[in-house]
Amino acid sequence: MAALKYAGMDDTDSEDELPPGWEERSTKDGWVYYANHDEMKTQWEHPKTGKKKRCAGDLPYGWEQETDAKGQIFYVDHINKRTTYFDPRQAFTVEDVVVKPKRYDGNTAALEILQGRDLSDKVVLITGGNSGIGFETAKSFALHGAHVILACRNLSRASKAVSLIQQEWHKARVEAMMCDLASLSSVREFAESFKAKKVPLHILVCNAAVCTQPWCLTEDGLESTFQICHLGHFLLVQCLQDVLRRSAPARVVVVSSESHRFTDLVDPCGKVDLALLSPSQKDYWSMLAYNRAKLCNILFSNELHRRLSPHGVTSNAVHPGNMMYTSIHRSWWLMTFLFTLARPFTKSMQQGAATTVYCAVAPELEGIGGMYFNNCFRCLPSPQAQDQISAASLWELSERLVSERPAGVQAL
Ligand SMILES: NC(=O)c1ccc[n+]([C@@H]2O[C@H](COP(=O)([O-])OP(=O)(O)OC[C@H]3O[C@@H](n4cnc5c(N)ncnc54)[C@H](OP(=O)(O)O)[C@@H]3O)[C@@H](O)[C@H]2O)c1
């Protein structure tokens, strides 16, 4: 007998067999509990295995649950005209296993996060989805059935991206639309065309960016890195916020960067300074402009979350990874050289898209926002990026900038 016991084969037919004096019962909503008649006590755990169980499925056809005068539940089998205190669902119980959210890290690929997920009821909009991390993000969503819209400044590059995705899966629902974030009127036109489609918007990924490009002003009279990375996205969300609210629960993911840590946006008086965000040519340093724009991304995401989360729209900012070989380096030969050196050691595009995809779909992030994620993990951004006053101040400044440049009016 002892040998059987050590082999895990005790002298009972089943490990579930109850010791004498115990009875298995279930609550009205199907949870199994155990009553000890000798000690007059009840407990949720099986007295031998320590496991918790619940009934799987509904009562068999023709059965009904009722309560007697003492408040005890009994079951009526109307077809066979009999009653019993034994819950027939107890024949089919399942263990109460707490499903812990899966842990991802810097090696996780976007498609791994989406494994087994059906996104066919979701509409996803991605700015700059024609190349790099944005393309990989768009492809991942489209391969899982989502209706994906690429908002791009160049329609021929965007159409090429659409056909690349459709080559992978001919049923992918992906389309390209024109949206130049360097032009406030283009963003407004895009938003109108999007609304004319009369589709919801469940996931908005603010991904597009430029980095280290030479100083130049947009048609709206603002420094282009600032306008493309931040202000264009700000206006896009302003224009589409009613669609997002109607589509709630909806999520916004703003793609930022760790480089936000190396700068600040406020003047010596502590106010967000437009001269720092959109500097003149003589005060311009391209890397600094990018870092500031990436800091804007986090502050914008935080404030957006604060304002829209009561309406079911959450927002998080992400860092996709370091020095991934996309086209982001193309404006400056030195960046191209550094990105080439780093290339063997950096994340793949799929890994670069993972944190964005995680923030867009993870069930454990439902209703959660105003955070910063790296490697699919919540982490703290710089103190500047956590400053709520700067976030509110940037929002007000951005509101003023877009309202000073209303539709149809071009700045000098
Ligand atoms: N690569 C990295 O190591 C790295 C690191 C940290 C953060 N990030 C962030 O990741 C995001 C994606 O960058 P990426 O590395 O994938 O670079 P990328 O391949 O250069 O992608 C940037 C995308 O933005 C688009 N874009 C540029 N200007 C635009 C405009 N005016 N209007 C609309 N779209 C515009 C580009 O379109 P075109 O193809 O037409 O130029 C391109 O599709 C960016 O937010 C970037 O800051 C990247």
Spell out the key features of this protein.
single chain; 412 residues; alpha/beta; Ubiquitin Ligase Nedd4, Chain: W; Rossmann fold; eight-stranded mixed beta sheet; three-stranded antiparallel beta sheet; 12 helices; 16 strands; elongated; disordered N terminus; binds NADP nicotinamide-adenine-dinucleotide phosphate
Walk me through what this model shows.
By secondary structure, this protein is of the alpha/beta class. It has 2 domains: 2-91, Ubiquitin Ligase Nedd4, Chain: W (Single Sheet); 110-404, NAD(P)-binding Rossmann-like Domain (Rossmann fold), CATH 3.40.50.720. Helices cover 35% and strands 17% of the residues. The protein has helices spanning 2-6, 110-114, 132-143, 155-168, 184-196, 224-246, 274-277, 286-308, 333-342, 349-361, 383-386, 388-404; strands at 22-26, 32-36, 41-43, 53-55, 63-67, 73-77, 82-84, 93-95, 123-127, 147-152, 173-178, 203-206, 250-255, 313-319, 372-374, 377-379. Strands 11-10-9-12-13-14-15-16 form an 8-stranded mixed β-sheet, with helices on both faces. A 3-stranded antiparallel β-sheet has the order 1-2-3, with no helix packed on it. Strands 5-6-7 form a 3-stranded antiparallel β-sheet, with no helix packed on it. Strand 6 (73-77) and strand 7 (82-84) form a beta hairpin. The chain is elongated. The N and C termini lie far apart (93 Å). Mean pLDDT is 89; it is low at 1-12 and 408-412. The structure holds NADP nicotinamide-adenine-dinucleotide phosphate. Residues 127-128, 130-134, 152-154, 157, 179-182, 207-210, 228, 255, 257, 320-324, 326-328 line the site of NADP nicotinamide-adenine-dinucleotide phosphate.
